[in-house]
Design brief:
It is found in: Bacterial flagellum basal body. With 119 residues, this protein is mainly alpha-helical. 60% of the residues lie in helices and 3% in strands. The relative contact order is 0.19.
Length: 119
């Protein structure tokens, strides 16, 4: 019986990669808050994670492929769909979720280190 590090670490490495990509997308939205005509983008984290979990790897294309446009609650006159409060809330939630995945990954590594050390 062999040992698989990817099975031991579960979904957390993929989740961290996706969270990092989503951070870039959300930061881009925030940076372009006052750019006329800028369309806020995002992606469905759960769908992307489920897709990567099926063995296909990360298929997210942040240059346009998998990203969807965010529908604004209050459209602006200049065509910009970034709503700063929404983007900041999404960014903060994404950072918190990143930290949770990182904590789980650290716990997994510590557990594996104990097993290797025979503790």
């Amino acid at each position: 019986m062999g040992f698989s590090l990817s099975q031991a670490l579960s979904v957390h490495p993929e989740a961290l990669k996706l969270r990092a990509e989503r951070t870039k997308v959300l930061a881009s939205n925030i940076a372009n808050e006052s750019t006329p005509g800028y369309q806020a983008r995002d992606f469905d984290f759960r769908s992307a994670l489920a897709e990567s979990d099926t063995g296909g790897g990360l298929l997210l294309q942040t240059d346009g492929g998998e990203l969807a446009y965010r529908t604004p609650n209050h459209p602006s006159r200049d065509g910009n769909t970034v709503e700063l409060g929404v983007e900041q809330a999404e960014f903060a939630q994404n950072v918190a979720d990143f930290q949770v995945s990182l904590t789980f990954l650290n716990m997994k590594y510590k557990g594996l280190a104990k097993v290797i050390a025979g503790q």
